[in-house]
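Fold Annotation — chain and its backbone
Encoding — discrete vocabulary of local shapes
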Amino acid sequence: MRMTSFTGGAFRVSGAHRAARGVMTLAASLTLGACGMFDTDINNPNAVVEENLADPAAATPLVNGLGATVSRSMNQIAGTIGAVSDELTWAGSREAWNTLDNGDINDPVNEYTDGQYPYLSEARWLGDYAVTQLEALDKDSKLRSRVDLARAYTYAGLAYLLIAENYEDFVVSSDRQANGDPVGEANMPTMFDKAISLFDKGVTLSTTLNNAEWRRNATGLRARAKFSKAVRAKFGTARARPANGLVNDAGASADAAAALALMPAGYRMRFTASAQNNGGYFATGFEISQRLEIRAGDEYINTNTARTRPLDGVAGIKLVDPVTGQPDAVLGRAIDECCRQTSSQFIPTTAISEVEMNLILAEAALASGNNAEFTTRINAVRSSNGLAPYAGTPAAQTVLIHARRTNLYLQGRRLMDHYRFNTPDPRWLPVQTTFRKTCFFPISYNERLQNPKAPQPAVNRSAACA
């Protein structure tokens, strides 16, 4: 689905305050040739003040802008999680991609994770702001479309989910004047809870409105949130690889089944990148197809002699389907979208899909020893991709891991699968955190410099990942 971008003015402030960017313009740029240096009585017809956002007409653009902001963060996280995992590998000259590729995930100074942080902070703040604005309009019976509120709940929940899945700690504050406190590493599960509570509201409202699209989106994302929360819980405070990485969460399974009942065949909640919402500090598609800084990983593709791109066509696909032994067609389609010379820099990102719901249910069945149900669910995934059915060979967990690897490629899930199934990226160096512990992104260096409540000194690693 295409997300409409809110392209109005924006403002930005430092540190924890910068999350307010994307709402409005509070100050206009001044052209010195048109006025005196000290003139202050300037009438700017393009200025938007915050009071304008209480106008019911502003609700739809505000939610569209929120969708575009969340999309931008998803785009960047697809790149950084891709680089830390085996999905992407360093191919260019920017050393920060190389350090991620080698497994150094917890360095706050890394330019790409440092650069992506304020955009996710912005998405989280704007989500809370939009929900508050639209709830007030709804309470006063002034909201022109209550579907906008269902969308706001869903987008805001997704911002919290991206934080919960990918960060060791995060600063969450609604105050644009005062610095905010970090959530705290021990309290990061509450980010899942906040996401789930917003998806709850999205499901309830979209059900009331009989809006199938946003009901399936919110329900599917709630399934993903419950599933990911169960995955991270497996790592515990010791951050060790679990003996059994399979997840069987009743809430995730119930939501996955409910979402499937609402999803047409092949359904995906997908964000289409555009010039207005493509990345932020960087855009993953641009880094792959234009700058050639990163490319698909060595376990996935056969490269050209310069090792910057896959070979053309099926010859470029190294990873084989474990059932047929043929180059994997699902991966081939994903590589066509993101990683070839002909790929656009505006790569799409998928938030949830029919396939992912079946993968959640397949895993729950395998974890509970229900091999017949596992086979039914994994073959639903294979059938939707035009693949031959699975009939018991190779081992079920091998097939599950492979199906997640190809069907969720560049969707930000691979790192947690590396950890929970104890299948490290061959590029990880033994000295790096990811080789030894299950760790994620830190609060960024730039946030720490500008927010004294964030971890200090600014260059320090997270305590659990030191």
